[in-house]
Specification:
With about 110 residues, this protein is α+β, with helices and mostly antiparallel strands. It folds into two domains: about 1-40, no CATH class; about 40-109, 30s Ribosomal Protein S18 (Irregular). The protein is about 15% helix and about 20% strand. The strands form two sheets. Strands 4-3-5-6 form a four-stranded antiparallel β-sheet. It has a two-stranded antiparallel sheet with strand order 1-2.
Length: about 110
């Protein structure tokens, strides 16, 4: 992980979505009281959650949608079809960047 980053495991999907939606959580332990930003970590070597590689020749999915209505990895074909739907056109794909830092990618149809 990059310097200053950590990993959190959630006990259930509802807690994860609440943390991602709030974007920040307050951590308290002993005398420490810290507000931290919660962002999804973009993993390498993930198949598309929509087609499992069927629409992209088995290639790994380059895009991750961090919007709470998605929270999935997508190949280019599935990103284009899913995010052409009303209400999802404003979602921005995250891609893995050097030093394990995800970046937002402008996507044009």
């Amino acid at each position: 992980y990059p310097k200053g980053a950590g990993r959190v495991a959630f006990s259930n999907q509802q807690s994860y979505i609440a943390a991602i939606s709030a974007r920040f959580v307050q951590l308290q332990h002993g005398d420490i009281d810290k507000r931290v930003e919660v962002k999804p970590y973009v993993l390498d070597d993930q198949l598309c959650d929509e087609c499992a590689g069927a629409r992209c020749g088995g290639k790994f999915a380059p895009f991750f949608c961090a919007n709470v209505t998605c929270l999935q990895y997508y190949c280019e074909a599935c990103w284009a079809s899913i995010h052409a739907r009303a209400g999802r056109e404003y979602h921005k794909p995250l891609v893995k960047e050097g030093a394990d830092r995800p970046r937002t990618l402008p996507f044009r149809w």
